[in-house]
Amino acid sequence: MKAVLDRIKLSLAEKADYYQRIVQPTAKHLGQLLCVEKWAIDMFTEELIRAGCAATLSLLVNHLDQILREVANFSCWQVISPVDVCGSVAAIRELISVQNKVYVRPMILIVEKVSGEEEIPDGVVGIVTSDMPDILSHVSVRARNGKVCFAACFDQSIFRDVKSKEGKMVSISLGCNSLLFNEVASSNWSRYLNIFSGSRQSLSLGKKKFRGKFAISAEEFTTDMVGAKSRNIQYLKKRLPSWIRVPTSVAVPFRVFEAILLSDINKELAKDILSLSRLIDKGDLSKIHAIKEHVLQLRAPTQLVIELKTKMKSSNMAWPGDEGEERWDRAWQAMKKVWASKWNERAYVSCRKAKLNHNDLCMALLVQEIISADYAFVIHTRNPLSGDPTEIYAEIVKGLGETLVGAHHGRAMSFITKKSELDRSHVVGYPSKRIGLFLSKSIIFRSDSNGEDLEGYAGAGLYDSIPMDREERVLLDYSCDMLVTDKGFQRRIFSKIAEVGKIIEGLYGSAQDIEGVVKNGEIYVVQTRPQM
């Protein structure tokens, strides 16, 4: 029932956003021509929505949601990253609108929308949102890794009350399935500010060199050539039991991108990219889009094409060029998009926040077969909500995992399994995501930088992984989804996923953050990293 109400809420929110996009620009244009006061222009579309039946339905849904929570004894809070913090409160509409800000004092942001792709701004110690981010989305993982309090509030009256504290210094502490807010006397502010301004851990990126190879097979995955993402895949492939599958992979090593820039066919573009990079390093983030556009214009050296083709074919992977020049062009475009993501705003801001030298950041590409997934999952082998090392927490969505790690609207299905009872899982949340992403057999180029898995650095999801082909967006119907309707099927899949988590944690000897997919009941692992 809760998932159904969430789904209705999402539909209503999307309808409101649609009206804002369609109506508000015209209202603004006409209002300015007619000299209408700004406040009236700004409110026009909102008032239009309030006058419609959707507003009435929204009130009814919110009322039902409150009743359901009381009857089912649900908390109105979802504490994603449980950390006690203190900071000054600021209310904003979208987290992404402030991701490049640097706050000089500890801030607690009250946010209406969290997309899941943002970097948490420098100086932010807490985020409270009325949105529904997944527990294992990238932004949630970065919050936990960065020791930032992150929580979702599902009661609008409580959310408004928290929002009303804007401008005040408050402390947040954990209550019983909730957050407790207390105003801090001005006489105590200096103590918290001194704690906030304390020294941060010094981090540095290991410098990499071009080793003369444009493509390598999995057997050549070493620290000099590729990042932890690629090396972990190769490590698992040699050690996992046969029922846990790992997609075939090759890689484009570190510094190949820089070698391509130095080639004669790209000299002019390289000059422009260098100039833009210098401007960005001086703080002009407006040049980020331009530098990414320049990267997308690069031409592929013949040697890259030859070596990548050879390595893929020798690894029994399909070579896109065999299907025509247009297919290779798609693959090459996807590769360039991954390299261009070095200049993602969230990634650049994150490097700056960690005081990492962005010029030392280099990107290998992990080239993997895409499994045409029925479901995608993420496992944390230590329960991230309670910190309990005896419990596995997992989230699962229909289709590809981008709707989960990217925190697409709606909730993933989630469950907890005791490591001592792998065949008994407890469902803690049913799915409400409206859209699933599906893709037939293809190739994906995954970012594998020397910064994503740097110890002490919250680097999850900063850079892009790009499939060669465009995903199909499908409106989901859970009424015929076996994972929801067939308890036996659900138990088998959840048990397998939990066992995968336990096995991989055992191989590494530490808690792991694992991504994988389910296809025809078979389990594939596509990535693992330490769970911080």
TrEMBL record:
Its cofactor is Mg(2+). Homodimer. Belongs to the PEP-utilizing enzyme family. The keyword Hydrolase does not apply. Residues 330-531 form the Pyruvate phosphate dikinase AMP/ATP-binding domain. It holds the Pfam family GWD1_pHisD. Keywords: ATP-binding, Carbohydrate metabolism, Kinase, Magnesium, Metal-binding, Nucleotide-binding, Transferase. This is Pyruvate phosphate dikinase AMP/ATP-binding domain-containing protein. It comes from Aristolochia fimbriata. One of its GO terms (molecular function) is kinase activity. The keyword RNA-binding does not apply. Residues 76-188 form the Alpha-glucan water dikinase phosphohistidine-like domain. It comes from the Eukaryota. InterPro entries: ATP_grasp_subdomain_1, GWD1_pHisD, PPDK_AMP/ATP-bd.
